[in-house]
């Protein structure tokens, strides 16, 4: 990975200084070749990488993070509508590596513009309708924990507690699910999971793509079930109790459990109130 994530993020602006404005203009019209286009791509790649918490930099040394960021920058400057926004692509890694205690793996970002926020399954608080997979997650959350179903698509409270909401593939073309599968992201996210597995943690793996990571973590630390999508949720996702089981795994390793409670329900009562 060359000089590492930290060098790439910190030096991107300087590397793009000569001709950055002209390069950005060229990129906007699809020209990402030549020195100016390369400068614009380097600058945008720096924006993408800047979200990564410094604690991850050493852990990702030797992983093709810079290459993935630069390839994504070229896609964007070439006119492709890539989701999520550049500053959110690595949002899952914006929490300190040592603070991460639960991993929830998704497949790739929501392909609907305005939905993807860089955290798997999460969307903006005002997203309506709430994505169907998340509706099913809310249903299982309520049944598992005895809490009211949330009225929001925002899972940031989990993220802030050290729950990494990581997609297996970090970007997608708007309107085209799975369009960036096999473009290099899998090597990056696998490296993230390998590092997390070195510490006490629990993993919630929904669907087969996520479950390919189970051998890296150990089955005794994984909660696995079908994906919460409408096509698969009735095949074993409902009733799987992922949240309480993840907390049991944490307690078994001497780690504090997660307070999964989200916002109050639509009636304004406490999320702790029994349904």
Molecular structure report:
The longest helix is centred in the first third of the chain and has 16 residues, at 34-49. 36% of the residues lie in helices and 8% in strands. It has a domain at 95-253: Uracil-DNA glycosylase-like domain (Uracil-DNA Glycosylase, subunit E, 3-Layer(aba) Sandwich). Residues 7-30 and 265-275 have low confidence and may be disordered. It contains ten helices and six strands; from the N terminus they run H-H-H-H-E-E-H-H-E-E-H-E-H-H-E-H. With 275 residues, the protein is an alpha/beta fold. The chain has helices spanning 5-15, 20-28, 34-49, 65-77, 132-145, 156-160, 185-196, 208-211, 214-217, 242-252; strands at residues 82-83, 102-106, 163-167, 172-173, 202-206, 222-225.
Structural class, by secondary structure, is alpha/beta
CATH topology of the domain at 95-253: Uracil-DNA Glycosylase, subunit E
The largest β sheet comes out as: 4 strands, parallel
CATH superfamily of the domain at 95-253: Uracil-DNA glycosylase-like domain
* CATH architecture classification name of the domain at 95-253: 3-Layer(aba) Sandwich
Write out the strand line-up for the largest beta sheet, numbering strands in chain order.
3-2-5-6
Q: What portion of residues belong to β-strands?
A: 5-15%
SSE sequence, one letter per element: HHHHEEHHEEHEHHEH
Overall residue-averaged pLDDT value: 86
Low confidence ranges: 7-30, 265-275
Number of helices: 10
Multimer state: single chain
